[in-house]
Design a protein that fits this description.
The chain is an alpha+beta fold. It has 3 domains: 123 residues, no CATH class; 43 residues; 124 residues, Immunoglobulin-like. Helix content is 25%, strand content 24%. Strands 8-9-6-11-12 form a 5-stranded antiparallel β-sheet, with helices on one face. Strands 4-5-10-7 form a 4-stranded antiparallel β-sheet. Strand 1 and strand 2 form a beta hairpin. Helix 3 packs antiparallel against helix 4 and helix 6 runs antiparallel to helix 7. The chain is globular.
Length: 331
């Protein structure tokens, strides 16, 4: 949740903020020992606001608005969302911040780091409580360049339901029209393939396929040995995703999937279409790779098999990624 910040001040700020959320008194010795520190301005601001010192808001927000990384800008925009609790802040101002904030959200629902995600989602949740209404409906119409329409109905029965449609036109101008009185958040995500990049990254992935090419089995079994490694300066990463595409005609072995789910650092394993998605809770910077194994079985014979891509990326910052390919080793 600290987003790569490894100092004790940041963790102290989060714990102190949680205590204040539980209505612990600011005079409590445990809370009092959580003194604000400059190493973590955003959590420090949250504690100041929750602790009943809104007079410090303007000074701290001015500091946070100075030029810096995207992460810093996101945190400085996230915590003003908490200000609707203050009588001097109007919802019109907060709504402008919300519009900017949702544009920073990636296609997976997160933000640029775990720390930013904690800040932003808490801010959006608080804003939603301030604008909540038991009445109202809205219709969102998305017009595609080719003339097709996609309608999304938002009402009291489905207002918490995530709705998604696949758009067929990859080029052109889309238009979005909203009619009604209910609040709705609309996001467009474009997914596309690129050649395997060779740029430097803090992540790396290697795949070694092993198979008995002399076997007469009608369903050849390939063992994929994966090596994932983090080369960055931090002690550990955010959550890491390993996206393993199947060779054409192959499928993961169910028993092997079960073993993979119980492997080191693996929080979760999903299968989607012809992909296996492995969620690693983190990759420590230990200058050694972490090994995982998955067996895949050929269900349908396919001639002239093409290589399959394996991608590793940071869940909260997908631009930090690496890719490699593997092939069926038998001729």
């Amino acid at each position: 949740m600290k987003g790569g910040v490894t100092d004790e001040v940041t963790l102290t700020a989060y714990i102190t903020a949680s205590m204040l959320e539980l209505n612990m008194s600011v005079s409590d010795p445990v809370v009092g020992h959580g003194d604000p520190g400059p190493a973590s301005a955003a959590p420090g601001h949250d504690r100041i606001t929750r602790g009943g010192s809104p007079a410090l808001d303007s000074d701290l927000l001015r500091d946070l608005s100075l030029p810096g990384s995207g992460d810093q800008l996101l945190r400085s925009a996230g915590f003003p969302q908490c200000l609707p609790l203050c009588p001097t802040t109007d919802l019109g101002y907060a709504s402008r911040i919300v519009r900017w904030l949702v544009r920073q959200q990636n296609a997976y629902g997160g933000f640029s780091s775990t720390q930013d995600t904690v800040v932003a989602l808490q801010a959006l949740a608080l804003y939603s409580t301030r604008v909540f209404s038991r009445e109202g409906t809205s219709t969102v119409t998305v017009q595609s360049p080719s003339g097709g329409q996609h309608l999304f109905e938002v009402n009291q029965n489905n207002k918490l339901l995530y709705q998604e449609r696949a758009m067929q036109d990859t080029e052109g101008k889309y238009s979005v029209e909203v009619k009604g009185s209910a609040c709705a958040s609309v996001q467009v995500a474009l997914h596309y393939n690129i050649p395997t990049p060779t740029d430097s990254t803090t992540l790396s992935i290697k795949v070694k396929p092993e198979v008995d090419c002399n076997s007469n089995s009608l369903r050849p079994r390939v063992t994929l040995k994966l090596q994932s490694q983090y080369h960055g300066k931090e002690l550990t990463t955010n959550m890491i995703i390993v996206d393993l595409k199947m060779l054409s005609g192959f499928a993961p072995d169910p028993e092997s999937l079960g073993r993979l789910r119980g492997s080191l650092l693996v929080d979760r394993v999903d299968t989607k279409d012809d992909h296996v998605l492995m969620y690693l809770r983190e990759l420590p910077s230990l200058f050694q790779p972490f090994n995982h194994t998955l067996d895949i079985i050929q269900e349908l014979p396919v001639q002239n098999l093409k290589p399959a891509v394996v991608k590793i990326y940071d869940y909260y910052q997908p631009s930090d990624q690496a890719e490699t390919e593997y092939v069926f080793p038998c001729k």
